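Batch job 17 of 40 flagged for manual review because the log was empty.
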Amino acid sequence: MGTSASSKGSGRDQPLVPPWADDEPGKPVPQPEPKRFQAFRRNFGKYLQTGDQQDLQRSLGHYARTATGGSSVGPRRFGSVYTSGGDLYSVLSSLGGDGILADDRGLSKASLTGQPLDVVCQRLSEALAPANGDADRIRESIDQAMIEVLGEEEFDPGRLDDETIQRILGEYLSQAVFQEIVEEVGGSWANGTATSTPEAEGALLETIRAVIEVNLSPRLEGKSNIVQADIRQFMRETINEVWAAWEAYGE
């Protein structure tokens, strides 16, 4: 599911927000706290051993407050995710409609219709992923979101109604946050076993899905033909609220 087997996590000298990922470029980024990952990783390692939901919540609290610099800083880290998410929404809306915008991106309805979904995911990822350090994470998030919502049937653009596209967008954002946290757990994954590791990954993803759905869905429900700038803003506002909720864990 995740990338836990190969994940080492960020080091203490890495910035809270990489310049290429910052959705507020030019705004000063505070200095990270020494050992900013320690409590987050320690509590996640404990969660791998106990399976106690409170240990997971404590870990997410430390992740939001300290590892990522709090709700005023952490959401800035997902600038590329917001931008590619806006693009994904627009392309899928186009494929479910007249197809003109998608065709301009090299993703014509005719060339994608009836293709295996993994082929369509690859085409979407190649067209929408940025040329920066978030490329692999965004490609994986697009792939997983499409498969989770559409299954593994041949691609049918007629299935892309507003509700389905909104579900894909929510899953995409959930997968992006999930990928980030899984990577940052780093060496603490060594506390897991062949059973507890996939169970922990599954529980983490469900926790993320739940909080993102609560905050993103009301922004999308009942709306159609939303512009890309609005989608980016909706996702940013959602992550702001997710971080604020997690900051309260363990206090």
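Reviewer: the log was empty due to a logging misconfiguration, but the result itself is present. The chain has a mean pLDDT of 92. Unflagging and moving on to job 18.
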